[in-house]
Amino acid sequence: MTVMAPDHDRRFGVPALLDAIQELSLARDERAVQHAVRRSARRLVRADGASLALRDGALCRYVVEDGIGPGWTGRRLKLGSCLSGWCMTHGRPVASADVRADGGLPVAQYRSGPVRSVLVVPVRTGDPIGAIAAYWLTPHRPGPDEVRTLQALADSASGALDNAALRSELETRVRDRTARLEELNARLEKEIFERKRAEEEVRQLSLVDELTGLYNRRGFMLLAGRELKSLQRTGRRALLLYIDLDGLKQANDLRGHEAGDRLLVQAAGVLRSVSRASDVAGRIGGDEFAVFMTLGYDHPPVHLIVERFLQAARRAGVRWSVGATASPPGRTVLLEDLLAGADEAMYRGRRARRINSAPPGIRAAG
Questions:
Q1: The dihedral formed by the CA atoms of 346, 349, 351 and 354, expressed in degrees to the nearest 10
Q2: Which residues pair with 119 in a beta bridge?
Q3: For residues 217 and 275, what is the distance between their CA atoms, to the nearest angstrom?
Q4: Alpha carbons 93 and 223: distance in angstroms, whole number
Q5: What are the backbone angles phi and psi of residue 353, rounded to the nearest 5°?
Q6: What is the largest CA-CA distance in the chain?
Q7: What is the 3-state secondary structure (H, E, C) of 158-210?
Q8: N or C end of the chain, less CB within 10 A?
Q9: What are the tens digits of pLDDT across the range 301-334?
Q10: pLDDT above 60 for 217
Q11: At what angle do helices 217-234 and 144-207 cross, to 10 degrees?
């Protein structure tokens, strides 16, 4: 059995530096870069602790720390009051075997801490944006290899931070652009909805009689014609009622057009009350109305349907004449033919009633 030393799986030197550089190259944001530096800096130079500080205007902001060190993570110090700030200001590495005894460096921050020796390298030598520091608790004189290794890590971190900043900027632009596009799409969808609603309102206005709320002649012919074609495809029959309102001219002449309008509105209300929801009812002329309905397989006799409309008018105090035409079984007929047949039946029934009070006019089209 082989007993492995606790540090047997750790890599040092060039392999460890290559691992660190690869990890930095894969870092997608600043936080990932920071943690990659934290995991690598101490191990690469076998220090007791390491930290990464970034420049924040005139301050040095300590963002991550690993191992034993001053414990400054999250602190902001003036650039001139700490070694990382000094390194950023001067743009070159600084090493001290005994930081407390080094009179040429700002060491006040270290006098009460456990740190004895320090190596600090700038992140980007020209216009530094940060600094990586390694700490030793016992006297240690950092050698050239350690300086080069830590500087190589800092140079890779510089590129990684630049890439992270660029990626963050691009992601922000994409988010802003996406949000803008979503806003524009929402606005466009709203405009399309409003336009469709306006078009539907215009369409309804063009199909509906403004006074009575029933379909106008155009609307009636469109919808009833569509229904008739559908019925004929399935072999079912239709019934068309042609209704002529009595007394409109007299109301207009004797009491004015407002009285005539009230009579039309009253007649339309009666028509709606007696029609089924599936029927198509419309005002197709000045005092002329029409109702298109589907005949069921067990529908009542046509003259009883006509009588139902006449009774509804009498109960409401409205006088009108009704003619009816049913589509012939097994034959195709035009809506205009049904209208003409119902109109003829209405006038024939009106003439007959004047003579001998005959029942309402009924005629089979075709």
A1: -130
A2: 95, 134
A3: 17
A4: 88
A5: -65, -35
A6: 135
A7: HHHHHHHHHHHHHHHHHHHHHHHHHHHHHHHHHHHHHHHHHHHHHHHHHHECC
A8: N
A9: 899 999 999 999 999 999 999 999 999 888 889 9
A10: yes
A11: 100
